[in-house]
């Protein structure tokens, strides 16, 4: 305790102050914005809904050393769709580009590099982060995987699991 009955706890960089009544004064911030507390002490919460019509597709292919393969979901149908998560893996190091293929053009939105015998997970930072208004003809979510191992005999199976709202 120090003068005034206020206790201060520090890790040498940050300090936590415990008031005489046992309460804490805490500021929650992302460095830009600070969480606002209403006059009655409550906070406003934006509840995110569960995905509507979630679809999970497991995709696999074999890819030669240094080559690239496309893993496409089934045609997703017309309407605005939201990509929620992609998991990629392989026994060799891979580069995975994730995006939208409209039947003509592939538009890459995310790139991941994954080491050999491992997996990489991309989760949307926000439910509306990666949305696309599909026209329902040839539109698919695409995971383009490149085998980064240039050893000629290192043909590998590659895997992708795609979770999206339909």
What share of the residues lie within helices? under 10%
At CATH level 3, the topology of the domain at 54-165 is Jelly Rolls
| Gross CATH architecture of the domain at 54-165 | Sandwich
Parts with pLDDT < 50 across at least 5 consecutive residues: none
How much of the sequence is in beta strands?
Answer: over 45%
Shape type: elongated
**CATH classification class of the domain at 54-165:** Mainly Beta
- CATH homologous superfamily label of the domain at 54-165: GOLD domain
- Major beta-sheet overview: 5 strands, antiparallel
Describe the structure using short key phrases.
166 residues; mainly beta; Jelly Rolls; five-stranded antiparallel β-sheet; four-stranded antiparallel β-sheet; 11 strands; 0% helix; elongated
Summarize the structure.
With 166 residues, the protein is mainly β.
Describe it for me?
It is a single chain. By secondary structure, the protein is mainly beta. It has a domain at 54-165: Jelly Rolls (Sandwich). Helix content is 0%, strand content 49%. The protein is built from no helices and eleven strands. Strands 3, 5, 8, 9 and 11 form a five-stranded antiparallel β-sheet that branches. It has a four-stranded antiparallel β-sheet with strand order 4-10-6-7, with no helix packed on it. The radius of gyration is 24 Å and the shape is elongated.
């Amino acid at each position: 305790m120090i003068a005034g009955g206020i206790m201060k706890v520090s890790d040498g960089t940050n300090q936590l102050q415990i008031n005489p009544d046992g309460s804490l004064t805490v500021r929650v911030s992302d460095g830009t914005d600070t969480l606002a507390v209403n006059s009655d002490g409550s906070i406003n919460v934006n509840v995110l809904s569960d995905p509507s019509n979630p679809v999970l597709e497991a995709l696999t292919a074999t890819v030669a050393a240094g080559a690239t393969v496309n893993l496409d979901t089934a045609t997703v149908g017309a309407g605005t769709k939201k990509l929620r998560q992609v998991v990629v893996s392989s026994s060799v190091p891979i580069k995975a580009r994730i995006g939208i293929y409209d039947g003509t053009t592939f538009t890459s939105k995310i790139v991941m590099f994954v080491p050999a015998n491992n997996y990489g997970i991309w989760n949307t930072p926000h439910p509306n982060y990666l949305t696309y208004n599909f026209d329902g003809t040839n539109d698919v979510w695409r995971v383009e995987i490149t085998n980064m191992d240039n050893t000629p005999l290192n043909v590998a199976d590659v895997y992708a699991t795609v979770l999206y709202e339909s």
